[in-house]
Design brief:
97 residues; 0% strand; single chain; mainly alpha; Serine Threonine Protein Phosphatase 5, Tetratricopeptide repeat
Amino acid sequence: MLTEILTQNPADSFARYGLAMAYAAEGRSDEALTEFGAIIQKDPEYVPAYQMSAQQLLKAGRTEEAHARLVAGLGACDRTGNSHAVSEMQAMLDDLS
């Protein structure tokens, strides 16, 4: 269903996020990261994509990439005023230090 939505509207960040989360739940990290990356590229203000992709990167042992994603996500939080996500992403970033 999500792929059908994305066929009709490839810029639908919410549907793409749902697809990425489904891939993540199935253990398909590479596909999930590809979808999260597509969201961030097309909709850099879509904060959840930064946080969840950082979690996937950490699970894959890609710490440096996760760090960079979290820093970029904190920038998106600042731009959008998303203070809730700031605290969660900052805690993840602090755990990397």
